[in-house]
Amino acid sequence: MSYLTQTTLAVDETTEIIEALRARFPALRGPASDDICYATTNRQRALRAIADQSDLVLVVGSGNSSNSLRLVELAQRHGIPSYLVDDPGDIRPEWLDGVGVVGVTAGASAPPRLVDAVIAALAQLCPVTVIEHEITRENIRFTLPPVVRRS
């Protein structure tokens, strides 16, 4: 028996599933390395770090982005209201009623300019003080395959 996982799954849920499989199938074999995307893992860790300090979480990302949807679900599992926003126009002012701290995160493919635009839109609706929490620095560089580099 062996398993593979989708690279953008929620890390916590994947771990639970693999542990259940291992309990049922002791000889279970999986990938040689962690097969959850590093960017997905980093964003989920960062969200866990701010979730308990947030009254609301906005996840900047597209509805067809698996890792963005997992971030919304992660915040909700922590009991924090959370919404996926594709762009600043998706923000609903009523979400901010009674909210003191808004956590903002983004899916792996959301460009920084879009995150900045969401923060600017929030500043039009309420006073904003931005505090960045850096959990890890992504500095992975991918090289082209040798066959492409020779061309």
Describe the protein.
This protein is mostly helical and 151 residues long. The chain has a single domain (11-125), classed as 3-Layer(aba) Sandwich (Cobalt-precorrin-4 Transmethylase, domain 1). It has five helices and three strands. The protein has helices at 11-24, 38-51, 66-77, 112-125, 146-149, and strands at 56-60, 82-85, 102-106. A three-stranded parallel sheet has the order 2-1-3, sandwiched between helices.
Gist?
The chain is mainly alpha-helical and 151 residues long. It is 38% helix and 9% strand. It has one domain (11-125): Cobalt-precorrin-4 Transmethylase, domain 1.
SSE arrangement:
Layout: H1 11-24, H2 38-51, E1 56-60, H3 66-77, E2 82-85, E3 102-106, H4 112-125, H5 146-149
Parallel strand pairs: 1-2, 1-3
Helix pairs in contact: 2-3
